[in-house]
Design a protein that fits this description.
By secondary structure, the chain is an all-alpha fold. The protein has a domain of 85 residues. The protein is 62% helix and 0% strand. Helix 1 packs antiparallel against helix 2. The radius of gyration is 28 Å and the shape is elongated. It starts with 9 loop residues before the first helix and ends in a 12-residue tail after the last helix.
């Protein structure tokens, strides 16, 4: 791998740092908010995490200035991960919630088994 000699302006790195710090604060705030369902909470958290990971990959890993093939591979991986997570969340949302307090044990398991009695000695 060839060494890269990019002369990045200090403003760019400070701007990316500020954006990452703001997104971290947004993550902490979003963690305390209930968006209606656990799946929506996960989607919001993953969207914020994806934005932060994209900033790191684009600027600190120099993906923005590198070959377009590397950017395509990064985007393809992100899209495949999104599709995979969408199918998982659809599956989880389609299931019924099981509440242990509403379950009733089978009748045979609820009653104790009768104890055999021994005949009285004669």
């Amino acid at each position: 791998m060839a060494a890269h000699s990019y002369a990045h302006a200090k403003k760019i790195y400070v701007g990316v740092l500020a954006a990452l710090l703001v997104l971290t604060v947004v993550t902490v705030i979003a963690a305390g908010i209930n968006f209606g369902s656990p799946s929506v909470n996960v989607v919001v958290a993953l969207a914020i995490a994806t934005a932060k990971a994209s900033l790191v990959a684009l600027f600190f890993m120099h993906l923005l200035y590198d070959s377009r093939l590397n950017a395509l591979i990064f985007l393809l991986g992100a899209v495949m991960l999104a599709i995979f997570l969408i199918f998982i969340l659809l599956d989880v949302e389609a299931r019924d919630t099981v509440r242990p307090s509403t379950l009733r044990p089978p009748a045979a398991a609820a009653a104790p088994a009768p104890q055999p009695t021994e005949p009285a000695p004669r």
